[in-house]
């Protein structure tokens, strides 16, 4: 993508991000813990990254507003409607992933 000008690259990256949000919205059955186990990020991470990007640019964006953008609704509503209790297997897999990260010094 180095052959693209900055504006075009930014537009493509923004479009890809919007598509990622739509994809996550279309797959609410995929729980955050599943994302954390498999990819080491979740919807909350995306929200935090948005807040961080805003801060880097001197823009105001609070975490709850970013969360609402990522989840497509207030987080409390999403949690009530779609979040399931993590199973013992999910909790164990997440703990194992976190332990492996600590061993590699990535925590």
UniProtKB/TrEMBL annotation:
<dbReference type="Pfam" id="PF06844">
    <property type="entry name" value="DUF1244"/>
</dbReference>
<feature type="domain" description="SMc04008-like">
    <location>
        <begin position="30"/>
        <end position="95"/>
    </location>
</feature>
<feature type="region of interest" description="Disordered">
    <location>
        <begin position="87"/>
        <end position="107"/>
    </location>
</feature>
<feature type="compositionally biased region" description="Low complexity">
    <location>
        <begin position="90"/>
        <end position="99"/>
    </location>
</feature>
<dbReference type="InterPro" id="IPR023163">
    <property type="entry name" value="SMc04008-like_domain"/>
</dbReference>
<protein>
    <recommendedName>
        <fullName>SMc04008-like domain-containing protein</fullName>
    </recommendedName>
</protein>
<dbReference type="InterPro" id="IPR036810">
    <property type="entry name" value="SMc04008-like_sf"/>
</dbReference>
């Amino acid at each position: 993508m180095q052959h693209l000008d900055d504006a075009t690259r930014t537009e493509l990256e923004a479009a890809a991000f919007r598509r990622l949000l739509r994809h996550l919205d279309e797959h609410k059955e995929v729980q955050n813990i599943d994302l954390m186990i498999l990819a080491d990020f979740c919807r909350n991470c995306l929200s935090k990254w948005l807040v961080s990007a805003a801060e880097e640019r001197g823009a105001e964006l609070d975490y709850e507003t970013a969360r609402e953008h990522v989840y497509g609704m207030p987080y409390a509503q999403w949690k009530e409607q779609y979040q399931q209790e993590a199973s013992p297997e999910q909790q164990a897999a997440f703990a194992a992933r976190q332990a492996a990260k600590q061993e590699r010094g990535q925590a």
